Amino acid sequence: MPPSDVSLPAPAVEEAVERVSFAGGRETLTRAVAVETPINIVYAPIPFAVMMCTPQDLEDFAIGFSFTEGIIDSIADVRSVHVEEDDAQRGIKLVVSLAGDKMQRHLARGRNISGRTGCGVCGIDDLSAMPCAKPIAAAPFMLTNAAMTRALDELVERQSLGARTGATHAAAWCDRAGGVQAVREDVGRHNALDKLIGHLLREKASPAEGFFVITSRCSFEMLEKVAAFGARAVVAISAPTSLAVERARAHGVTLVALARNGGALVFNGAENLAAEERHEG
Known about the structure:
Layout: E1 12-20, E2 26-34, E3 37-43, E4 46-53, H1 58-68, E5 78-86, E6 91-98, H2 100-109, E7 113-117, E8 143-144, H3 145-158, H4 160-165, E9 169-175, E10 180-186, H5 189-202, E11 210-214, H6 220-229, E12 233-236, H7 242-251, E13 254-260, E14 263-268, E15 273-274
Parallel strand pairs: 3-6, 4-7, 8-15, 11-12, 12-13
Antiparallel strand pairs: 1-2, 3-4, 5-6, 9-10, 9-11, 13-14
């Protein structure tokens, strides 16, 4: 799937601001501001969702979103993704062409999303339509303290847009040793994870060979996306919600949260953490 040749807006813009000291005094400077753009996801020719998104890695986003929404089952279900400018609406269209059977299944679902930034379950009209990943049959993933420490440290260095703007979330895919293999950023936490999952699907990455790290809170739909991809562990820098913990137990996902300042809380799967032995000289 070749990258689009559409000229996308920059993911950040420079704005003139006034720095004000509460003790008195002010100065004029420039500040990078994260760009938030309406992205219309269209399953040709029918619009499905409008998400507020950072305009980068959009092909990854289209694929990851389609996968975690259950519209596709694999990358093979996507024939093409075209990025189109929509000048009239001051936004961008992602036109996704699906395999025939998947398009028919999609048309039968009837869910539309009019999105906020990283909206979770907007558009469903019944509680039975709440997302729920398929059960994971893979073996438990063993996390080590060293792997989590390395992943958290490397992720800080890889958040280039977040460092510039202070306004974006990040999701990282890490190998068993904690080495960060890929990072995606976005103003929406769900979008960042969808972008990353889309990239992993395109790269045919094995869910059994790594774990996710997210910079946001771990709400239930974030856990559902992790489980849908097939990963067995997620480390969140912020806290989980009660439903995320419930879903982690149901799907057998190791959930580590509030991972900061040299420690973390394990909300599910403590038996899958292997602390290295310390050898004192």
